[in-house]
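Retro notes, item 3 of 5
We never archived the inputs for the FE2/S2 (inorganic) cluster complex last cycle. Fixing that now. Sequence and ligand:
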Amino acid sequence: MSLSEIETDVVIIGGGPCGLFAVFELGLLDLKCHVIDILDRPGGQCAELYPEKPIYDIPGMPVVTGQELTDQLLEQIKPFNPEFHFNQRVDALERQADDSFRLVTDDNQVFRTRVVVIAAGGGSFTPKRPPLPGIEDYEGTSVFYSVKRMEDFRDKNILVVGGGDSALDWVLNLLPFAKQMALVHRRDKFRAAPDSVNRMHAKVAEDAMQFHMGQVTQLHGNNGQLEGVTIKTTDGEIHHECDTVLPFFGLTMKLGPVAEWGLNLEQNLIPVDTEKFETSEPGIFAIGDINTYPGKLKLILSGFHEAALMSQAAHKIIRPDEKVVFQYTTSSSSLQKKLGVR
Amino acid sequence: MAKITYIEHNGTEHVVEAEPGMTVMEAAVKNSVPGIEAECGGACACATCHVYVDPSWKDKVGAREDMEEDMLDFAFEVEDNSRLSCQIKVTAELDGLIVKVPEKQF
Ligand SMILES: Cc1cc2nc3c(=O)[nH]c(=O)nc-3n(C[C@H](O)[C@H](O)[C@H](O)COP(=O)(O)OP(=O)(O)OC[C@H]3O[C@@H](n4cnc5c(N)ncnc54)[C@H](O)[C@@H]3O)c2cc1C
Ligand code: FES
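Structure as it came back at the time:
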């Protein structure tokens, strides 16, 4: 499917705290942003890895959780109406003859922009692959880490592995499609919503599905076609027949496509200057955890500073004829108008 | 100081002097013990610091807390003596502790 092209001043790759704050700094300079993230919501590491844990070193906030910081940033950037594109990974980034950039996501959405801000943190969040011997051979044929179309799972003998919301939700959603359904989890406690857990137990009681307490230790099959798995339980090993396995063990960060954009990576990080936080490619900036320069600290506050300086340089590229006058948000009526407080 | 022995999956032993107050994960990372990745730096948010505590030490090391128990869902081949090493504080009582490093972190 090809969607119509989106044209904008700036595309921000990554909706973590630094990408979000970049919307603010660019917005003060009247630059319009689109933010793309592979996650299904904003916040990057803060929202995905530690939403409920406290952060103590955000200036002016003695303590704030990962999710609270994300929510506050969203509130702060609201006046600038950023457009978010979630569940999409930027795969391609190419410079065009007119020095604009063309970006393409894995959903085939195309963006045209003058400036690209890479705020990709530690890379794209991707599902964790259980270290089961030979699992690669089954990926895409019998082992799936996400469900795009439920219809693809009709009449399958499905085994879901995990104990969080994704695992329980897919057990319940796919149950009407599956020929057989089973869930494996290492203990009888679940991290999922209690209601889903109760519904799953009810389905087991009705014999509509099975639950095994244990851990999958081996996959069995041929040529990418799974025939069954070995499950280690407290009572020993059992063989379970199935043709489809859906493992849900959370997400981890993998660098991903950023590596292929010709940015002279050093140890998986993008080198930038410390005046503009521009990469070796003019017009492509990198801020937050993904960049490196002498003295770099991977802290949220460093990314905020980088966003401010980057924005000045981005403005020069996009509006070369306009001069930026330095102003405070406290006293500038024009900035306050943009923020909607005046 | 407390002496901690890390045994890799292939049997290689690493004996480390750890300062009380640091965690078993930190002592491993500081001394470059292979196999303990600790991606989240000890926030109990990644489960890549999984170790097996030697059965003779299991009681002394103490029990898992709820958050650690939840996080162990993301570790591979979890056993009764599985722990996230960032959640074990080194104390003088743990002098001599032995832990096994799994073949793979997730
Ligand atoms: C447990 C833990 C505790 C922490 N505590 C603190 C603390 O107390 N103080 C502090 O300052 N920092 C702390 N940090 C670090 C802090 O979270 C990071 O510095 C911060 O998240 C970096 O923000 P970022 O916006 O650069 O990237 P991230 O938050 O990593 O976000 C990057 C986003 O980009 C997306 N992405 C990457 N590539 C693509 C692509 N090609 N297409 C689409 N999307 C893509 C990713 O999916 C991700 O959502 C902590 C980190 C962890 C894990
Ligand atoms: S270091 Fe991440 S959970 Fe222990």
